[in-house]
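re the bet — no i am not wrong, look at it urself. input seq straight from the record:
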Amino acid sequence: MEKIEKTNVMRILDQKKIPYKSYCYADTSAVSGVEVAQVLGQDPAQVFKTLVTVSGKNVNYVFVIPVAEELDLKKAAKAVGEKSISMLKSKDLLPLTGYIHGGCSPIGMKKAFRTVIHATAEALPTIIFSAGKIGYQVEVAPELLGKVVRFTYADIIVSTNAVPTS
C-alpha cells in the first residue's frame, strides 16, 4: 500500500489529538461510496458520505449519511428546523466548503455549518468518511468527532422498506 499523504482533515485530527485510522483507495477505480466501502473491505453501513444542502433562506447544512443510503430532504429539513432544503449544486461546493464533489468531509470546511449525522452512527464504535480528498478516508469514533465538529443525530435517510426494483 502506498504511503498515505496527510490531508487537512488528518492534520486537524492530529492537532486535536484525536485518534483515527486513515485509508487510501486512490489507486483503485472505486467511485461510489459503496465501491469505496468494498475496496476498503468495510461494511457500507459504517462508511458515510458528506452532503451539503441549502435552505430556501440560503442557509447551508451538512448531512452525513451511510454511503448506500439516500438523504431524505423532508426529514433533513425537519432535523434542522427548515421548511425545505435542496442539495447544493456541485459548482457551489468548492467555493463554499473548500472541498470538491467526492472529497467532501464534515471536518475542515471553510466555515462551520450545522451538521447532522444519521442516527445509526450513534450505535457504531467508529465511522469512516472522506479525509477531504478523493481517494482518502478516515475512521473516527463518533463521540471523538464531536470534539472537532458540532453535530446532532437524526433519522435523515429515505426509508428503505420499499421493495427494491432492479
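see?? Strands lie at 21-24, 48-55, 60-66, 85-87, 114-118, 127-130, 136-140, 151-154. told u. also Residues 22 and 138 are 4 Å apart (CA to CA). so pay up
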